[in-house]
Amino acid sequence: MAEISLRKARTIIRKSLEKGREMELKPLSVVVLDAGGHVIAFEKEDGAAPGRFAIAHGKAYGAVMLGMSGSAQMARAEQQAYFMAAVNGVYGGQVVPVPGGILVRDKKGSVIGAVGVTGDTSDNDAEAGLAGIASAGLTGEG
């Protein structure tokens, strides 16, 4: 099974932050997780709130643990709030079911990790993260 290397994780972060600057977003925080939900890399821009790691992590963690993007999780939460509440109980409250949690797939379509971006609107966070993932030659599902 393929995995996200530290080099690719750093590229994802760098390019996500560059996209955020290009879009004139608020300061972003970006985390990259492996397929088991473990942190590979994290960065927060100057001026980002200190609690942003937990939000970025929660977006990515929910994506990789459930195998569904943040936008899909949000739709599920709107349709079945009890399910997402139960999931959050199972995962100790670590799931943040909104856009900005992006599944990362390899060329074969296998999930190899997730990216979490936070700092601006959830949709803008997702756009920046998707740009970072594409820059690393991987496919993002936001």
TrEMBL record:
This is Heme-binding protein. Coiled coil: none annotated. It comes from Cognatishimia activa. It comes from the Bacteria. The lineage of its organism: Bacteria, Pseudomonadati, Pseudomonadota, Alphaproteobacteria, Rhodobacterales. Gene3D superfamilies: Haem-degrading domain.
